Amino acid sequence: MSLRKIIRIATPFALALTLVGCGDDGAGSQVVVPAPLPSSTSTATPTATATAVAYDSTKCFLQPIQGQNGANLKSFIIPDTLKLDLTRPTKFPNGRHPEDQVVDILLATLLLDMSVTGQGPYTLADVPLNPQRNDKFFLLTFPFLATPNGTPQVATGTGTNFNFRTDPDSAYVSVDRMGNPAIATALVSSSMKLSYNDDTPTGDVAGDKYLTEYEHELDKLFGLIGDDLEKLQLKICATKS
What we know:
By secondary structure, the protein is mostly helical. The protein has 8 helices and 2 strands.
């Protein structure tokens, strides 16, 4: 038998003996599994789902405003008129000084918890973003407003022959109501602005006619900026669910 033929027959037997030596179940063998090669395709990171937060601003309208003898926000904005009670400090929202930062003050009473130490009607007004004062000093006597800029013609006397209108109320048409700043602007939706402007303070009081509208619009405002206020370490008056 030639050497080539012997090798050709022996090789399969040698391979068979090797497999038998390993056992049918692979006992006694060591199988080395190569590590997988890194994938060239990156695995996308799942996007976190934002949790919706619902706000309830009912408490905001009922909380007492500091320095106003227990009066709450609702009593100031219903009806939507500027009010003056001489038994309280005469500063907005009770009356109004020319230099009062009325929008900042009203927004603070709408958005912030007035029971928290360090928060009050002037929290936002005290933020150093507004001008420190008017460009001209206000007068200490009537009409209290600062003198006009430029060189306008100014009367030299006290004036005479004033023609004050005596038309009845029915002769006038209400175009826009702005008893308190930001109420008609921020708390009345576009679909209700015409009916709101056509209404009267008497209509406001009847069954707190617009209170539900105020609350609904303030809830939406909290949905937009509530978390931002809390990030500024401010305590909001609305409750969350």
